[in-house]
Amino acid sequence: MSPTYDLVVKNVRVVRPNRSAVEVQDIGVRDGRFACIAPEIGAQEGRTIVDGRNRLAFPGVVDAHMHIGIYQPLATDAATESKAAAMGGVTSSLNYLRTGQYYLNRGGPYAEFMPEAMRLADGNFWVDYGFHIAPIAASHIDEMEELLTRWGVPSFKIFMFYGGYGLHGKSSSQNEFLMIGPDDRYDIAHFEFVMRGARRLMDAHPEMADSISVSLHCELADILTAYTKLVERDARLTGLRAYSAARPPHSEGLAIFIASYLAHETECLNINLLHLSSRKAIEAALMMQNVFPHIRFRREVTVGHLLLDVDSECAVHAKVNPPIRPREDVEALWQAVLDRKVDWITSDHACCSAEKKWSAADPSDIWLAKAGFGGTEYLLSGVLSEGAKRGMSYPHMAELLCWNPAQRYGLTKKGDIAIGFDADFVLVDPGESFVVRAADSPSQQGYTPFEGQELTGRVKSTYLRGELVYDGSNIVGGARGRYLRRPTA
User: Fold this and answer.
1) Given a cut of 80, is residue 489 above it in pLDDT?
2) Most confident by average pLDDT, 291-295, 313-317, 365-369
3) If you average pLDDT over residues 169-174, what whole number do you get?
4) 366 pLDDT exceeds 80?
5) For 153-178, b where at least 16 C-beta lie within 10 A, e where not — what string?
6) By residue range, what is the domain housing residue 236?
């Protein structure tokens, strides 16, 4: 008699979202899906048997905010950074792409951009992957229909500060940076028309309407420009503290107000407010939820903004947009997490190698450093470590890291350990501590702003659709990541 299951994992504490408790269970996997979750599955029923050793079994993490190919060629970046994701328990990676400088370094229509991006991604991901797309040129709004129906991309991004500011700081020519025509304007009117485009898609495709959303990076270029001039003249401010002052929290708050009113005006009901970094940003987001209760807002924070502050020793390593903030903002973010006012936590992973991150002539100059850093490999452990100290339950962590982003972004078979779902799961020892060392990561970044931090909660193995991809020390097997055409069936 042949075994019932391809894989049986015995003696694990199964962590599920939307549950009040964690239960000791066995897990049976067949054909890449969870087929049985029960107190006892006989060893003879599995082709392969794994002893879970009473570890936590989390659903595979859905890192819903990553950047692949921003500073390295996309195919190269996909391979190394998806291995880093698997090391951290991430099994689904949703990556922001756009035309313009960086990424593929090309403008023009997405009809030409997407086939190239898909070709470069194919066969190079060790975890399942999908894309969010930013309509940059006015003509891209007309392409949103094809992005949804041909490429399975229902989530679109707006970078609110790009209208008058570059990726790393001041910019003299935004049209050149964005690679758009002289008559194009990346401004508030463009943001409105992107939202109207999303609303049209919701009306045209009601069966997919819940998965169609617009995400916003909320900072205002005018505020950034003015405050950067002030801060640069103030010799008392340096490093991360200077960068935070140059992109002040009220710039986030004002941008959130504008984005929220535009959502109301356009009846664009699904709005994601990305990487909220400060108390003022959280307060503004909650205020707008009260003003516009019919808008289905979702609020995101990143593990970087939860683990780092302006006094962290990592300095320029942690330059990112929006900036790392003072400790009082970090604690305000944690309180919002604990109060269930945050919907998901991501990494905002953007691998930026040392030779590109800072100036060799002056490696301590925050203004010369590029923005962004990797961290997907520390997403689960970071939340486990710091969340446990603050009394977070494991099911709540699973909601923030797995279930909530999967539900919003149309991953209908991800984010839970449930019958019929993809058998993506992570075995974690919640009591094992480790010190973060960049040298231990497969990422090509070569450094990490989390260097030297001690985290408690170590990933011991990661499974993608029931197949081992990380064994606690090494990446196992080839690139088996599949493209996530959303919403998934």
Assistant:
1) no
2) 291-295
3) 66
4) yes
5) bbbbbbbbbbbebbbebebeebbebb
6) 61-412+431-456
CA–CA dist 286, 330 (Å, integer): 17
Q: Is the pTM of this model over 0.85?
A: yes
Average pLDDT over all residues of the chain: 96
Nearest C-alpha neighbor of 299 from the set 278, 316, 311, 282: 282
- The DSSP H or E segment spanning 128 is strand 128-134
Name every residue whose Cβ is closer than 8 Å to that of residue 221 and which is 6 or more positions away in sequence.
160, 161, 162, 163, 164, 165
Which of 216, 230, 328 shows the shortest CA–CA distance to 276?
216
For the chain, helix, strand, coil in percent to 5 are 35, 25, 40
Q: Is the peptide bond before 487 cis (omega within 30 degrees of 0)?
A: yes
CATH number of the domain at 356, please.
Answer: 3.20.20.140
Buried b (16+ CB within 10 A) or exposed e, 57-74: bbbbbbbbbbbbbbbbeb
Same domain, 329 and 448: yes
pLDDT, one tens digit per residue, over 89-107 is 999 999 999 999 999 999 9
How far is it, in rounded angstroms, from Cα 305 to Cα 96?
Answer: 19
Q: Which amino acid is at 62?
A: V
- Report the alpha-carbon distance of residue 183 to residue 131 in Å, rounded: 28
CATH number at residue 40: 2.30.40.10
Q: For the ranges 172-176, 209-213, 278-282, which has the lowest average pLDDT?
A: 172-176
Q: For position 2, what pLDDT does the model report? A: 86
Same domain, 43 and 182: no
For strand 270-273 and strand 296-302, is the pairing parallel, antiparallel, or unpaired?
Answer: parallel
- Is residue 234 located within the same domain as residue 130? yes
Alpha helical stretches, state H, 88-143:
110-121, 138-141
Q: What angle in degrees, to the nearest 10, is found between the helix axes of 221-232 and 249-266?
A: 170
pLDDT tens-place string over residues 398-442: 999 999 999 999 999 999 999 999 999 999 999 999 999 999 999
Residue 323 pLDDT > 80: yes
In angstroms, how far is the first alpha carbon of the chain from the final one? 32
Question: CA-to-CA distance for 66 and 352, rounded, in angstroms?
Answer: 12
Amino acid identity, residue 478?
G
Count other Cβ atoms within 10 Å, centred on residue 288: 23
In this structure, are strands 5-14 and 56-59 parallel, antiparallel, or unpaired?
parallel
